[in-house]
Structures are given as structure tokens and as C-alpha cells.
């Protein structure tokens, strides 16, 4: 019987899984779309939807819970200031998982996880800004 076995272990320890999903949810919040394996994407969808629900509450306690789960100030700021107002009228289903074929090296099933009604310009925006800043410094 499967009593209390509610999540995928993904062949990792609890600490590794917790850190991995913390990093993945921060990347998802930053870029609003990431590509990963299908089992990780399905598990990340549960976590991401819960984080957006926490962000929609908007009080101090919710912000502290988000900091404890995400561990990155920029991700928490974007969660509360951008994503929560965007989904204020939506009752769940903030992310979608789209199958994206198989990885070349090991034929692992791949998937794209993204926010519904996402900002297309958010993907890679911080990287582009960083590269432009480095180019300006090298010119001077």
C-alpha cells in the first residue's frame, strides 16, 4: 500500500531534492519557462502552484514562508510583486507542462514547464542585461 507516499523521490536524498526544487522554482520564477525532464516538471508544477498561492496571500507570514522555500530575494520579490497580482483572479492552474521529446544522450523524456499567461520577454532578460553591462564596461 502507498499510504503517505505522495511525491516522487527522483532517486535523490531529501536534502538534495529540496535544494534542487528550490533552485528550479527560482529559475522558473525568473525566466517564467524552463526545460527539464518530465518527472521533475510534473513534481515542480505542484511546488510552483503552491508558491504562487502563498504569494497571492501577500501578508508578512506568507513572505517569510516564501523566503524559507525559495532562498533568493529576487525570486520572492518577483513572486509577490509580479506573479501574485497577475493571477489574483485565477483559482489554481498557474503552470503548464508541455512534453518536449527526448534528450539525445540518454533518451530521457523532456518537458517544458511554464507559467500560464507568461511574459515572453522575461526569458533570458537578466542574462541579456548582464551581457550589455559587461559590454559597456569593456568599451569604457
Helix content: 55-70%
Instruction: Label the CATH architecture.
Output: Alpha-Beta Complex
- The count of domains is 1
Amount of beta strand: 5-15%
Indicate the mean pLDDT.
Answer: 92
Radius of gyration: 17 Å
- Name given to the CATH homologous superfamily: Ribosomal protein L17
What's the main sheet like? 3 strands, antiparallel
Strand neighbour order, sheet with most strands: 1-3-2
Number of strands: 3
Number of helices: 5
CATH topology assignment: 50s Ribosomal Protein L17, Chain: A
The shape is globular
Overview in brief:
This protein has helices at 14-31, 38-57, 60-70, 73-86, 125-139; strands spanning 33-37, 95-102, 109-115.
Structure description:
56% of the residues lie in helices and 14% in strands. It is of the alpha+beta class. It has one domain: 50s Ribosomal Protein L17, Chain: A. A 3-stranded antiparallel β-sheet has the order 1-3-2. A hairpin with a 6-residue loop joins strand 2 (95-102) and strand 3. Helix 1 packs across helix 4 and helix 3 crosses helix 4 (73-86). The longest helix has 20 residues, at 38-57. The protein is globular and about 65 Å long. The mean pLDDT is 92.
Amino acid at each position: 500500500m502507498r499510504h503517505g507516499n505522495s511525491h516522487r523521490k527522483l532517486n535523490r536524498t531529501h536534502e538534495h531534492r529540496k535544494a534542487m526544487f528550490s533552485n528550479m522554482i527560482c529559475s522558473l520564477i525568473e525566466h517564467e519557462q524552463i526545460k527539464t525532464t518530465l518527472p521533475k516538471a510534473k513534481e515542480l508544477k505542484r511546488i510552483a502552484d503552491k508558491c504562487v498561492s502563498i504569494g497571492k496571500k501577500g501578508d508578512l507570514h506568507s513572505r517569510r514562508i516564501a523566503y524559507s522555500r525559495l532562498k533568493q530575494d529576487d525570486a520572492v520579490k518577483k513572486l509577490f510583486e509580479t506573479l501574485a497580482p497577475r493571477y489574483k483572479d485565477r483559482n489554481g492552474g498557474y503552470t503548464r507542462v508541455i512534453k518536449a521529446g527526448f534528450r539525445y544522450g540518454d533518451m530521457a523524456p523532456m518537458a517544458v514547464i511554464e507559467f500560464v499567461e507568461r511574459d515572453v520577454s522575461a526569458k533570458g532578460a537578466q542574462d541579456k542585461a548582464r551581457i550589455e553591462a559587461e559590454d559597456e564596461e569593456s568599451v569604457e
